[in-house]
Amino acid sequence: MRLWIKDPLAILAAGAERGIVVEGAEIVECIARGRSPAIRPDATFDASRHVVLPGLVNAHHHFYQTLTRAHPVGLGKELIPWLAAMERVWERMTPEALRIAVRMALVELLLSGCTTAADHHNLFPPGLEDAIDIEVEEAMRVGLRMTVTRGSMGISEKDGGLQPDSIVQDSDTILSDSERVLRLYHDRNAGAMVRVALAPCSPLAVPKRVMEGSAALADRYDARLHCHLCQSPDEDVYAMQAFGKRSVDILEEAGWLSSRAWVAHGIYFNPAEIERLGRAGVGVAHCAASDMLFAKGICPTKDLEAAGVPIGLGVDGSASNDSSNMMEAVRHSLMLGRLRYGASVTHLDALRWATEGSARCLGRDDIGRIAPGMQADLALYTLDEPRFSGAHDPIAALVLCGAHRADRVMVAGRWRVIDGAPEGVDLAALIGRHKAAARGFG
Prior knowledge:
The chain is of the alpha/beta class. It has two domains: 2-54 and 374-422, Urease, subunit C, domain 1; 56-361, Metal-dependent hydrolases (TIM Barrel, Alpha-Beta Barrel). Helix content is 36%, strand content 20%. The protein has helices spanning 79-90, 95-111, 131-142, 171-185, 208-221, 233-243, 247-253, 271-280, 288-293, 301-307, 326-341, 347-361, 394-400, 427-438, and strands spanning 2-6, 10-11, 19-23, 26-31, 43-46, 50-54, 56-58, 114-121, 145-152, 194-200, 224-229, 261-265, 283-286, 311-313, 378-382, 408-411, 414-418, 421-422. The chain has an eight-stranded parallel beta sheet. A six-stranded mixed beta sheet has the order 2-6-15-16-17-18, covered by helices on one side. Strand 12 (261-265), helix 8 and strand 13 form a beta-alpha-beta unit. Helix 2 runs parallel beside helix 3 (131-142), helix 2 crosses helix 14 and helix 4 runs parallel beside helix 5 (208-221). It is globular and about 65 Å long. The protein starts with a strand and ends with a helix.
């Protein structure tokens, strides 16, 4: 069926003033001003009240943390004390709790206009060995496109690390399960709904064998690599003390300094490291909300981008951002960027990072833009709320006036949000189940 999304109030695409035509899972035509579709459409959607964006792409998250938002043991703490306290809570995660946490994260993202998400799941206490399988099942159920990352932590307190013994795994288990989920779920085809990446927590949180083995598996299966890197200056202090080298050097020695990798946060790189990352094509997921919460610094987005680094956006964990809203992440990144770079950072930069930039981080060239041949992943917003009254530029208004919920969302040509409600999801029941599960982590 050919669907004409007709005459939008505004659209973030060139030559599409009269809208776009979707057939199956793809965009097949952009309709310029004064034109009509080349082939008569089978159906028309009147988009005259809507601002149309490419579906937003979330490049970093921790879905399981939706159950521990605003948790008392984490309030008012710096990053490392917060993490140490929260991991004692998260070690109680069960398959049932994870499933409802993942479902809530997916729905919350979808309602904000997010159509693709990468989740960094690195929590594997006993009994949660099938965590990645649960995430894939829930993504398929909700209909959000995903890069599911098989995370890992392999250095515990008994080894001199930060993590409790209960949530880490040995190297053999990590690498074996990484290959298992790659074989089962990684789809390299255009339009894939599920891809798998390998994601040790950080180069400092797993043995070198896991970093090197993950790189080898990623090369073998043509998959992506992901980790946290340089969120805090303490990381390089520790790296120099423990290994006699900086974090980026450790990354390079493990075979990760390539366009196959993207990292989360990326605040504390020196100028030479920024150039190295740019030459290699390593991406950075800017996580503005959590970086503000922990007051660790501001990602040098413009410097990284100028060096050739793809910049994407991530909402980060829902216990450090306390929200899974990608439109909020767009606004946060704009405002934080202004603090560092002034007016040279615009709303269009922030939207580009949340769409094309995040897609590049995930190694995808079939999402993140509105153009013929791209996947029909779209987020449609209205400007009917008081916050938008008086706004003159509809696209700028979404960012500057604080849009936070989409009216319609399409993934792979299928409406997944209609009139602000997720299709096939009883939202009230989901909230009730999620709140009940969260009480188990009090």
